[in-house]
Specification:
Number of domains: 3
Shape: elongated
CATH class of the largest domain: Mainly Alpha
Helix content: 25-40%
Number of strands: 9
Number of helices: 18
Largest sheet: 3 strands, antiparallel
Radius of gyration: 27 Å
Strand order of the largest sheet: 3-2-5
Distance between the termini: 60 Å
Strand content: 5-15%
Length: about 425
């Protein structure tokens, strides 16, 4: 019970206060030079400190230690950083929960940061952004591990549909977040702290703060800028976590330094029939919105050690190659069974597609329906057309034609566009 209450407070502290916050700044315009990865310094038994043979990140057993030996941001004695260090030290259970949540994702994130030759501190940003909760959603509509907003996600080509939200997918969101950070790093002339602040509050606000300080003859380092308190605390949170890890002042429960997940491509729509299996997948695929229907997802994330079995499972799933998803407005006399029969789907599928908990539907309610077909065409009504004539032309029934286009009338208007599904069988 205590842990539940504690985590509740953490969520309020870390998610409600903001989506993307930033660490402390270096001197103005001074770019951070990436340290040689893997270089460590031995603790001296005398006053002398000797360098030891560098360890490669891949040679370590723990991902946290892989991060630790590559940390490069300078230590900060700023009061805000020290205050945050004190908070972490008085909440040891917090890092235990963070490690539990981060276990499936951290290796992938660290690898992506390394592949781009970015500061390894960026791999800690999901700790500040979302407490490593892939399903986190803020009051500002930011979502996922990296708390991407809809506009940023769209700009960096993260798919968001009624069925799939790539912001809650570790693969898609990490790519987009690091793309964004690379853009901001260039935008702020190589000042990582300014870039990270901009990730949280927006580049415009940070640029305005810098311009204001320049005009007043003040320093433009991060701590000298006038920014919202949420952003002012972001850098200290990140630096505090990095310093505790760097100097091993706090226990970060070990996470194996190996890939924990794999991705399997998905084409079309897949309905996962095995409830136990899709419940397992749900833990790694928060981006899939309406289980067990996997629709619009470019891939699913599976445990690495179970990749082969999940690959077989997907291969054996019934194909649901729906060529069209359309909106249907519930009419008087409708029921799920009637609608399901008309559209050749099951009641269970209808409930899944529309996230319905019961069989009750109401007049005027909008439902999303799949339509099985080999071909879909859009027909523009011409003078002299009728439903009977169009139905005969395409060898479909008038009833189906009306259902596909949600028509309650028999008359047509010139210029009206109708959707027609044609089967080649």
């Amino acid at each position: 019970m205590f842990l539940n209450r504690f985590l509740g407070l953490v969520v309020v502290s870390f998610i409600v206060t903001g989506c993307q916050t930033a660490p402390e700044s270096l001197p103005e315009k001074k770019p951070i030079i990436k340290a040689n990865p893997g270089t460590v310094v031995a603790e001296a038994k005398t006053a002398q400190v000797d360098a030891v043979t560098p360890l490669k990140p891949s040679e370590l057993d723990d991902v946290w230690q892989r991060i630790r030996i590559q940390l490069q941001f300078s230590d900060s004695s700023h009061p805000d950083v020290q205050k945050r260090i004190a908070w972490y030290l008085t909440h040891p259970n917090y890092m235990e929960e963070i490690s539990r949540r981060a276990a499936p994702y951290l290796y992938h994130i660290v690898t992506e940061v390394e592949n781009r030759d970015l500061p390894i501190e960026l791999a800690l940003m999901p700790l500040i952004e979302s407490d490593f909760d892939a399903s986190a959603y803020s009051h500002k509509h930011a979502s996922g591990l990296w708390q991407l907003t809809p506009s940023i996600a769209k700009y960096f080509k993260v798919k968001i549909t009624p069925w799939y939200d790539g912001r809650q997918d570790v693969i898609d969101s990490t790519r987009a977040a690091l793309d964004f950070m690379e853009y901001l790093y260039k935008r702020f002339d190589g000042d990582w702290y300014h870039a990270i602040a901009a990730y949280n509050i927006g580049e415009g606000r940070v640029l305005q703060a810098i311009a204001r300080n320049k005009k007043q003859g003040k320093s433009t380092d991060f701590f000298s800028l006038k920014l919202p308190s949420q952003t002012k605390q972001y850098v200290p949170k990140l630096l505090a976590a990095a310093q505790l890890l760097k100097h091993q002042k706090m226990i970060f429960p070990a996470i194996k330094n190996e890939q924990a997940i794999a991705t399997l491509p998905v084409t079309g729509a897949v309905i996962l029939a095995d409830k136990a299996k899709w419940q397992e997948l749900e833990e790694l695929n928060h981006g899939v919105i309406r289980y067990p229907a996997v629709i619009d997802a470019p891939h699913i994330v599976v445990p690495k050690d179970q990749q082969a079995s999940y690959q077989t499972l997907l291969a054996n799933q019934k194909s649901n190659d729906y060529s069209q998803w359309q909106h249907y407005t519930v009419k008087r006399g409708d029921s799920l069974s009637v609608i399901a029969k008309n559209y050749k789907v099951t009641v269970s599928q209808l409930k899944t597609f529309n996230n319905l908990k019961t069989n009750t539907i109401r007049i005027g309610q909008k439902l999303i329906l799949p339509q099985l077909a080999d071909q879909q065409i859009e027909y523009k009504v011409k003078s002299g057309d009728s439903l009977w004539k169009i139905a005969k032309q395409y060898k479909v029934s008038i009833t189906k034609l009306k259902q596909w286009n949600n028509l309650s009338r028999d008359s047509l208007r010139v210029g009206e566009k109708l959707t027609v599904f044609i089967s080649n069988s």
